[in-house]
Design goal:
Layout (H helix, E strand, L loop, with lengths): L4 H30 L3 H28 L3 H12 L3 H20 L1
Helix pairs in contact: 1-2, 1-4, 2-3, 3-4
Length: 104
């Protein structure tokens, strides 16, 4: 399943997107509404690591597919927006993955 850089990016994007949503909609309310700051500490650390892994996974995909700067920037922007990795996956990565599978 994770044999290509594109597959790895899609998986890390899913995990990074989920961690961002958990951070924003579960951990942050727990911190500010329930006085539980540890939720943000642990989920935030996990999200930070996944964010860095997403950026590292994006680089080989950009280079292998010879993306334009615009497409690469959209991949970066997706990682900064809640739900962005899911939209980027659906609109860019999934069609690219399907096209690659039909070639090979």
């Amino acid at each position: 399943m994770l044999s290509t850089s594109l597959d790895r990016l899609r998986l890390v994007g899913l995990l990074e997107g989920l961690s961002f949503l958990i951070l924003m909609f579960i951990a942050m309310p727990l911190k500010y509404l329930a006085g539980q700051p540890l939720a943000v500490r642990y989920v935030g650390m996990a999200h930070g690591i996944l964010f860095l892994l997403y950026l590292l996974a994006l680089v080989p995909v950009v280079l292998d597919n010879r993306w334009s700067w615009k497409t690469a920037a959209l991949g970066l922007l997706a990682s900064l927006l809640p739900g962005g990795p899911f939209v980027f996956d659906a609109r860019v990565l999934k069609p690219l993955s399907e096209a690659n599978k039909t070639k090979g």
